[in-house]
Amino acid sequence: MYLASMKTLMKILIRTAQPSRRASCATILGIESSCDDTGAAVVNEAKEILGEALHSQKQLHIDFGGIIPPFARELHRKHLPAVVDSALSAARMTVSDVDAIAVTVKPGKHDAWKEIELKMKFPFLVLLVSGGHCILALVRGVTSFSILGSTLDDSPGEALDKSARRMKLRNLPELSMLSGGEAIEKLAQQGDPSAFQFPFPLGRARDCNFSFSGLKFYLLKTIRRLEEKQKVEGDQLVPELADLCASFQFTVMKHLCTRVQRGMGFLDLNDLMPKNERTLVVSGGVASNNFLRSALERVCNEYNYKLVCPPPRLCTDNGVMIAWNGVEKWIIGCDITHEFDSIVPEGRCVNKTTHVFELLWERN
């Protein structure tokens, strides 16, 4: 979290804005700075996106082989004022026209975009797959969700990015401008997913948790073995890269689908999901992966779910999802504060009702 990097700007905004009032159609400014993208958006109570702006740090972090937190923090501090100004200008507004400011303080609402295009009904299932998290949760309302499972170690995005770095995919010109996950997905199209057999994570676990560190370690060990056997040194590449990418991606996505499938069965067994109008929302950066979308579509068809995936630009961090969630909370009068210092960022998603599901897992 980089909430501290916007402290000065937020205090200026609060001083500049007029005292809070209940407007006929309130307007919320959303600010996103949780990872490597600086985003801002203006959304009103009628659920209209009035303006948005985004500054991406993607290329810098690709060049460095991953996100460097100190760099990301300084870039947020540098670009946040201009991004906010651009979003307000696009909305033809000033900060004095804003009724409230919503900021990122923790993960968990990447699915807030859903109502932009669809009128969704609670409850629904959400899978958050990103570079920082892997969470399967039952969403009951704007502020009510219960975690069915989460990663025990690495996130899928982290595993993909670090594996791509170790395979030196950036040395291929056609992949040099892509993130690790994008590079693996593209090269995997040329490979055989059955060429390498990766150990399947948590094969005997009866819950819906995830694990990716073992897969990553096995891939790194495989690459090292191939490099030693073929005497590959420096920036040279092993010839099996396409097959490695295809096999690794297949196992990662199969693991995700298997745990989602188990979660759906668990919800059915405990009557926690209606028989009709079932929805799985997939969000986070890894949700852009078309192989994953296709695989989850098959799972959803088996369990009578509708699969909802955001457009790629909303899979990664953006101001729209924060402003949208701010509007939802404004409407029900939830989590509204007038004291900036009372805002406490959380680096991980914490769910107070998880113990209920742990008891159900034991019973089933």
Automatic annotation (TrEMBL):
Top EC category: transferase
Keyword set includes Transferase: yes
UniProt key word tRNA processing: yes
Single GO biological process annotation from the record: tRNA processing
PANTHER family: TRNA N6-ADENOSINE THREONYLCARBAMOYLTRANSFERASE (PTHR11735), TRNA N6-ADENOSINE THREONYLCARBAMOYLTRANSFERASE, MITOCHONDRIAL (PTHR11735:SF6)
Species the sequence originates in: Darwinula stevensoni
One GO MF term: tRNA N(6)-L-threonylcarbamoyladenine synthase activity
Protein name listed in UniProt: N(6)-L-threonylcarbamoyladenine synthase
Residues covered by the Gcp-like domain: 48-108, 119-324
Catalysed reactions listed for this entry: L-threonylcarbamoyladenylate + adenosine(37) in tRNA = N(6)-L-threonylcarbamoyladenosine(37) in tRNA + AMP + H(+)
UniProt cross-references to CDD domains, sorted A to Z: ASKHA_NBD_OSGEPL1_QRI7_euk
Keywords from the UniProt entry: Acyltransferase, Metal-binding, Transferase, tRNA processing
